[in-house]
Amino acid sequence: MNALIKAFYHESTSTISYVVYDRQGGHAAIIDSVLDFAENSGKLWTAFADEQIAFVRDNDLTVDWILETHAHADHLSAAYYLRRQLNSKIGVGEGITKVQKTFKLIFNVDDAELAANGDVFDHLFQDNESFQIGALQGQVLMTPGHTNDSVTYLIEGNAFVGDTLFMPDSGTARCDFPGGDAGVLYDSVNRLHQLPPETRLWMCHDYQPGGRELAYETTVAESFRTNIHIHDGTEKAAFIAVRENRDKTLDVPRLLYPSVQVNIRGGQMPAAESNEQAYIKIPLSVSTSLK
Ligand SMILES: [Fe+2]
User: Fold this and answer.
1) Which CATH number belongs to the domain containing residue 149 in this structure?
2) Contact assessment for residue 231 and residue 225, using Cβ atoms and an 8 Å cutoff
3) What is the pLDDT of residues 134-179, one digit of tens each?
4) Model pTM?
5) Which domain does 204 fall in, by range?
6) How far is the CA of 290 from the centre of ligand 1 (A)?
7) What letter does residue 76 receive in the DSSP assignment?
């Protein structure tokens, strides 16, 4: 069965969201949705997610799944909004509980507000678990390394890889967030590179290196042959050195703190305080002279 795929590009975060469906009038999944957010004002809106809702309505689709490839650190997920609008369920890899645990400590979130057991999601996928999108058959592959909850959704010969791979000219995503590990990412990329060579790989991000045109689709064969960080013959130690050296040069992502605080809650905002206002926190690194 052929999956039908519609890509949506969110320019300000360089994210690609996907609607994957079996036929017009059939069933769909929305993968890696984005909530619009202005970090200077705290304003949130849903214009981008509403594009997917309009597409779903135009094609008379029932959305079975809102799927997250991982807890993103560069954009806020619209999963909670879409789930309510479309009466759907949110799926994520079971490693999300580790991510919740880690960031609850960093942001001092108490157990009453958020349990680190994944209960803000509807379903936690295990490795190799199967799922259905109408007539489409999906399978979940654990592909940790960028984060420890990263998964790939393999749907009828299409692998939605999240940040486990970038386009061949961009290589791989950073591994220096809490829970990231370059050696683990190497093994995950190899797992993807062992899929049938004609498997189509769909990216979650594209940063258009050198100003080239937007691109978000490649194949296992092409990635295995030409990915600048991991290709046929790349040794694990060599990849780890390249990845870790590059990570040392990277700044904190613009939306890191807002993203993880919302995304570990399945796309919900932190609880409002006693003045009925919700906030995003920024952990401060205070030099001794300021203490
Ligand atoms: Fe990411």
Assistant:
1) 3.60.15.10
2) yes
3) 999 999 999 999 999 999 999 999 999 999 999 999 999 999 999 9
4) 0.97
5) 4-265
6) 33
7) B
